[in-house]
Write a structure and sequence with these properties.
By secondary structure, the protein is α/β, with parallel strands linked by helices. The protein has helices at 11-20, 101-114, 138-151, 165-171, 185-192, 208-219, 246-255, 264-268, 271-283, 310-326, and strands spanning 2-5, 24-27, 32-35, 51-55, 74-77, 80-83, 88-94, 118-120, 154-159, 174-177, 197-201, 226-230, 260-262, 288-292, 330-331. The protein folds into 2 domains: 2-55; 74-331, TIM Barrel. The structure holds phosphoenolpyruvate (PEP) and manganese (II) ion.
Length: 332
């Protein structure tokens, strides 16, 4: 159950009440909020005089649920907003990894050319093999920060583990939690303590319930700026890298209040299908797209098969406008 305490309840009292009902506590800017187990269905009598509103929930998807917030949340990204009733679909692009200043600079220029507001690229890469490029680390973060200064872009980059979560929070405008890091509670809890926007990717073996509950760790820390990202799950199919779970996206739209961004690049794993998938995603009325692009995909140090070259991306980007318009959305 989510409980909004009366606005005149101070922090000391809120903490005392939280202890009484064994709940998590945070301040949402207006009210102290308590979140108990979802097994609690009736407001305890001892809390009645201190409570402004309460919301029983059917599972431990609580703060992310439509049972708590009927309206979808609005989250700031790229200097604009997605979710809520904005009807905005943000497009984010950039290479899988920062490889050099020249490579990230030319990628940033592509964003500027098309009016894309958010540049993506990983500096700490969670690779499947220890023998492949692991990312430039802090040097990569500094290059991304340089691109922000030079071109006025916002930067999204992923946190691989809790050893550098503070650096990512410091350098990035949007923190990406990758599919392989989605269960790292050190990362989730730290991200709950910042107000930066967090893009939480779904693990490829993660159920929708587990996915939304991972988001609860961030939300219940007091950070409301969470975006979910579907990036493909593992199925019996091996011809494509993963399977983009559009049914899951429909479920998330219906039952959660969080904006949803789709990543067709990692889902299919091959450049040939990315444009078709991206258009299908936008036709679903989603809040954003994450597309990997590289100035020369053939020599990319990670995810070479799936990155679009710049001309492929230009063509895709142009074609998205009409698809978005047909479902009442605007590409931002
Ligand atoms: C990425 O965005 O480059 C990435 C590693 O994604 P994922 O966590 O979805 O595999
Ligand atoms: Mn990648």
């Amino acid at each position: 159950m989510v409980i909004h305490l009366n606005k005149n309840v101070n922090e000391t009292k809120a903490l005392e009440l939280a202890e009484q009902v064994k709940s998590i506590h945070f301040f949402n800017g207006a009210n102290h909020v308590l979140v108990t187990s979802s097994k609690l269905k009736e407001l305890p009598a001892s809390l009645q005089e201190y409570t402004e509103a309460f919301f029983p929930t059917s599972s431990d998807i609580q703060l992310a649920s439509r049972e708590y917030l009927k309206e979808r949340r609005t989250v700031k990204i790229g200097g604009q907003h997605i979710g809520g009733n904005t009807n905005n679909t943000i497009v984010i692009t950039g290479p899988c990894s920062v490889e050099s200043e020249e490579q990230i600079d030319i990628s940033a220029k592509l964003c500027v050319e098309l009016g894309v507001k958010v540049l993506r690229a990983g500096a700490f890469k969670p690779r499947t093999s220890p023998y492949t490029f692991q990312g430039l680390g802090l040097e990569g973060l500094k290059l991304l920060a340089k691109m922000r200064e030079k071109y006025g872009l916002q930067i999204i980059t992923e946190v691989r583990d809790s050893t550098h979560v503070d650096d990512i929070i410091e350098y990035a405008d949007i923190v990406q939690i990758g599919a392989k890091s989605m269960y790292d509670h050190g990362i989730l809890k730290k991200c709950g303590k910042t107000q930066k926007t967090v893009l939480l990717k779904r693990g490829f073996g993660t159920t929708l319930q587990e996915f939304a509950q991972a988001a609860e760790f961030i939300l219940s820390g007091g950070n409301p700026n969470v975006i979910l990202c579907e990036r493909g799950i593992r199925t019996f199919e091996t011809k494509t890298r993963f399977t983009l779970d559009l049914c899951g996206v429909a479920w998330l739209k219906e039952y959660t209040n969080l904006p949803i961004i789709l990543d067709p690049s990692h889902a299919i794993g091959y450049a040939y299908g990315v444009a078709d998938l991206a258009r299908a995603c936008v036709a679903m009325g989603i809040d954003g797209l994450l597309i990997e692009t590289h100035p020369n995909p053939k020599v990319a140090l990670s995810d070479a098969d799936q990155q679009l070259d710049f001309n492929q991306f230009r063509a895709l980007y142009a074609s998205l406008q009409a698809v978005a318009k047909s479902v009442g959305r605007t590409i931002i």
